[in-house]
Amino acid sequence: MSNKITMQQIADSVGVSKFVVSKTLSGKGGVSEATRERVIAAATQLGYFTQKHVYMNAAKPEPAAEGAKSRQSVLLLMPNIRFQTKESLYWGRVLDGVSARLEQEGCGMIIVSEQSIEHFVDILNPSGILGLIGVGEISTSLLLEVHRIGLPMVLVDHEDALIPTDTVFANNYESVYRLTKHLIGMGHRNMMFVGNVRYSRSFLDRFLGFRSALEERLPEARKLSKEEQLVPLDGADQSEHLESFKSWASERMERNALPTALVCANDRIAIGAVRALTELGLSVPEQISVTGFDNIEDAYRIDPPLTTAHVPKEALGKRAVERLLGRIASKNEPLEKILLTCDLLYRGTTCPVNEDGISERYGLPGRDSRPEHN
User: Which of 40, 73, 76, 104 is most exposed, with minimal Cβ within 10 Å?
Assistant: First the structure.
């Protein structure tokens, strides 16, 4: 009896027609998003995507002539064009790392910011592409199309539970765990995390690191719900986040219920929080400490400079290229999730507090910019 997983088996599992399954797995339209997700989930669970017959053969590197470099290219997919651009202080550095490493290998790079699955299919030409590196948030439908044709891919700062692939992340959980423990060591007992944990896997992992450190070191924190440890942010861009945060901070000030420290999901949010708190008449860090994550260039330009976790952004890009080349060479190896360690930079937006949560004010430990070493 054959162990081959068929479209009919998937259809029976989901309760839809084989035609619907075929349209979904071929990346075609006409299928609702909810049904598409159910079909992909069932196909993944049944092991359909691990069958070699499902995919076309991906391009293989052709040996270059002696003294010449290969002209094959890697596709770099950056679909979130509002926030993930070459000019970004974060994503631009990741892109630099990808570009530099590909140049060492004699490979070209094609940057695509397409979000439409139909247009993306038109762009995709496996015969001329070694593989794909996806940067940041990418829809399941786009990833499914890449996976369907068998093109090797590596995702940077993103993963999809339905699409098995290699991934490269900063060690978000461990970094915020250490940063939170540092704040606890400075006397902080009343802290909150600022950021939408549904925005990305990285934000969620950072919150989990924050919460784990609190619950490990502060027994009283174990009684708090997830919502009681989170500062909600509305909207998608920086200006909307700022207004949402100011509204929250104003309401807390009126109740005299501000925490002594805020652990922000990234530097952009932290910088906005510092500015909002300043506009509300609060002094950072004397009245409230703030930390960020990423160490973008603006993090050390603000006054005071931001305490943050330094993400090795170019290294993320380089490591993604290396993993892609490794995947091309050995397609049957187990998938890898690679985590790069971050350094913690203790700068001017944090300071110690006493047992009453009152700042010890100036000139105390924890105010310099030296990275933490384990």
Answer: 104
Q: Which CATH class is domain 7-53?
A: mainly alpha
**Are domains 7-53 and 172-312 of this chain identical in fold?**
no
Tokens 């949010």 map to which residue? 269
- pLDDT over threshold 70, residue 93: yes
- Domain 73-170+314-340 is found in CATH 3.30.70.3490: no
The Cα–Cα gap between 152 and 61 comes to: 12
Residue 30 backbone class (left: φ over 0; alpha: ψ -120 to 50; beta: rest): left
- The pLDDT assigned to 185 comes to 94
The 10 Å Cβ neighbour count of residue 47 is 11
Q: Which amino acid is at 221?
A: A
The angle, 0 to 180 degrees and rounded to 10, between the axes of the packed helices 313-329 and 91-104 is 40
Q: Is the pLDDT at 361 greater than 60, yes or no? A: no
Residue 150: φ, ψ to 5°: 85, 20
Answer for the pair 100, 92: CB distance below 8 angstroms, yes or no: no
Strands 129-135 and 73-77, by their bridges, are parallel
- CB-side neighbour CA atoms (13 Å) of 218: 21
- In angstroms, the CA 261 to CA 6 distance is 54
Q: How does pLDDT run across 239-288, given as a tens digit for each residue?
A: 667 888 999 999 999 999 999 999 999 999 999 999 999 999 999 999 99
Query: Cα–Cα distance between 138 and 340 in angstroms, integer?
Result: 21
Could you give the CA distance from residue 135 to residue 113 in angstroms, rounded to a whole number? Answer: 10
Percent over 70 (pLDDT), the chain:
79
Note the CATH number of domain 172-312. 3.40.50.2300
CA distance 53 to 125: 19
